[in-house]
Amino acid sequence: MNSHPTAHARISRDKGGESTTGARKRIIAGALAGTVAAALATALSASPAAAVSPAAAVSPAAALSPTAAVSPAAGIAGGTDDGRPAATGHRWADVTSEPASARRRAPGGPSTGLAATGAACSATVNGKRTCLEITPATSTTRPPASARTGPAAQTGPAAQTGSASARAGSASARIGEIPAPPWWCVETDFSVILAGSRTEACQRFVAVYTTWRTIDGVITETGQMKLLMTSHTPVHALDNEWTHYLHAGAIMSYGDAIGANLNAVGEPSGECSVRQNVFDGGSMPLGALRQGELGLTGTATAVGAIGYCRSGWTITVTAPGYNPASMTIRSTGIRCDNATGGNPRSAGCVIPWYAAAVTYSHVQQRTVAAHVEQAQGSGLPGATFDRPLTRASDTIRQRNRELACHDAVSLEGESCDEYPLASSQQGLTAGGTRRSFAGCLFPFIPSATGPTGVSVCMVDENDNWSQGGKMSVFYHNNRVLEGDPFRVLVVP
């Protein structure tokens, strides 16, 4: 009989489950200082969930399986058909999740999108093992009954609150002023990468660190710690430098995982270099707050250059007597370029898969706005994240224009407008036929519905010129290159 104890540990994503109660559930209840406070408070409002049982947790494959959350449409529970969260009003109107195509093609391997493909586990040494998983941010747990062996769980958080505030201040002093994550990241309980513009992405998740010990062939969970983590990447469309921030707060711990040490190292891949790589690592008692900055510079600066960069953080958790458990979380891909023209030319960086919106006003571009509204109402794309337009080359733009407006009547003060825009890949070069509407002065072209083809209409010449100038500024300011998605919205 093997009388030697064996210990295991894991760090993993929290999967959620049934609600639990009990003396060993330890969650931060007091307010914490720093920018993670709101995120921590949000986590506490969620229903607690049961921990993964020790038996199931032994298999790395079972510990963290891919979930439907990586799908843009399914990535946000209760979301709309374009992947946005269901919400009242327009609060979430400009927030969307990273599409699968973006995760696959950026450098450095697929972005984990906070839906990793397996648990990262340490080797078993002297019967001890640890693993690390990443899970949605909604779950907090108590340890299972079978795991209640080892040191006592930390007691109430009241005594921890002040020290957490001091640690948060200390981290800020050493690292610098770290901006708060956007509201749509803090208020989200889903582990997908989100973007609210072409210059800001964020992800929020829970890292679950679990320890096991094997004695006489019996595996017993001996500890667990949950870390609420926020990865925040604001970039700059007119600058090729940006910073990837990481926030980590201890929201639950018990047993051998109490006070385990957390460290993280930033890792870039692709056409970028590191300016700064610092993380305020250390022990993680209940309520501890740690923060990090990975400063990056895009290297695609020559005129016409285009480069891609993906950053990430490798997080490592170590408890006394156990080998470290680590996992790398990669962010979404960032594209930097000096290919958008302008005078003077300059490099800048964006999130290329995010479909920014250009707006046409019923006041400033009255006749164009009315035409776009009719065209989109007939089924043509461009108004939503799931059916955006994509920018075309100059050659395609010219051909789209010729096919749409070659027989337009010549009227003083009027000009031919086509939708989808000639500068999009959804023009007539992509197929389909023309349609028009009453009052558009194309009496020989019938009305129609459906997602392909174009609508043509004679509009006020000044409105059309205004729309053309607006598109030039929009493409430049948002660094929209050929093939990039964008939306067209009509506003009052």
How would you sum up this structure, described in words?
With 492 residues, the chain is of the alpha+beta class. The protein has two domains: 5-337, no CATH class; 356-491, no CATH class. It is built from nine helices and 21 strands. The chain has helices at residues 37-45, 54-57, 60-63, 100-105, 158-175, 183-186, 366-377, 394-405, 461-477, and strands at residues 5-13, 96-97, 120-121, 128-135, 194-197, 200-215, 218-234, 241-255, 261-270, 272-279, 282-283, 289-298, 306-318, 325-337, 348-350, 356-361, 389-390, 414-419, 434-435, 454-460, 485-491. Strand 7 and strand 8 (241-255) form a beta hairpin. It is elongated and about 90 Å long. The N and C termini lie far apart (79 Å). InterPro entries: DNase_NucA_NucB, TAT_signal. Residues 407-488 form the Deoxyribonuclease NucA/NucB domain.
Give keywords.
492 residues, alpha+beta, five-stranded antiparallel β-sheet, 9 helices
Question: In short, what is this structure?
Answer:
By secondary structure, this protein is α+β, with helices and mostly antiparallel strands. Helices cover 17% and strands 33% of the residues.
